[in-house]
Amino acid sequence: QAVVDFERLSEHAAAFQGHDVGFCCLGTTRAKAGADGFVRVDRDYVAQAAELARAGGCKHFVLQSSQGANAHSHFLYLRVKGEVENLVQAVGFDRCTILRPAVLLCKRQESRPAEWMAQQFLGVVARVFPTAYSVPVETVARAMVASVLQPGKEKVEVLENGDIHKLGKA
C-alpha cells in the first residue's frame, strides 16, 4: 500500500508502476468538498490516477462510478461521474470495467443524515426488490474482483446495479 498526495499525484508515478489491474473507488461528496473539490476528486484525481496506472503498465482498470452517470446530465454528481467514465475509457486500457452501483448500503464513520435515511428506507425496499435501488458495498467489492477473474467480453464493460448484484454473488 502506498500513500500518495493527490494534489501532487504525478510525483508518485512509481506507486502506479508494475500493476496489471487497477481498482478505483475514489470519491467524495459535494457537502464535504464543495462543488470544485468534488469535481477535483471524483473526476480529476481519478482520471490522473488512470493515466498513471496505464503508463505504469496497467492492462485492466476497474472503476466504481454511479447509477445514472451521464456526461450530459444537468446534475453535477451524475455529470462528473459520466465525464470521468469517458476520460478513463479514453486512456486506452486493454480492458476497462465500469461499475454503476445504486445507493451503497454501508456503515459510515462520518455523519450523512440524508444518506442514512435513504439507507434505512432502501434497506427495507431491498428485502422486496433486492437489486432495484441499492447494493451492499461488499457486493460491489466482490463484483469488482470477479470482473477481473472472468474473461472480458468487450474492451469496455459497464455493469449496472443488477449486473453488480449477479456478479457479486458469483
Automatic annotation (TrEMBL):
It comes from the Eukaryota. GO terms for cellular component: cytoplasm. GO terms for molecular function: catalytic activity. Residues 4-151 form the NAD(P)-binding domain. InterPro entries: NAD(P)-bd_dom, NAD(P)-bd_dom_sf. GO terms for biological process: import into nucleus. Monomer. Forms homodimers during oxidative stress. Interacts (via N-terminus) with elongation factor EEF1A1 (via middle-region); the interaction is direct and competes with EEF1A1 binding to guanyl-nucleotide exchange factor EEF1B2, thereby inhibiting GDP for GTP exchange and reactivation of EEF1A1. Interacts with nuclear transport receptors XPO4, IPO5/RANBP5, IPO7, IPO9 and KPNB1 as well as GCN1L1/GCN1 and LRPPRC probably through their HEAT repeats. Binds NCOA5/CIA. This is Protein HTATIP2.
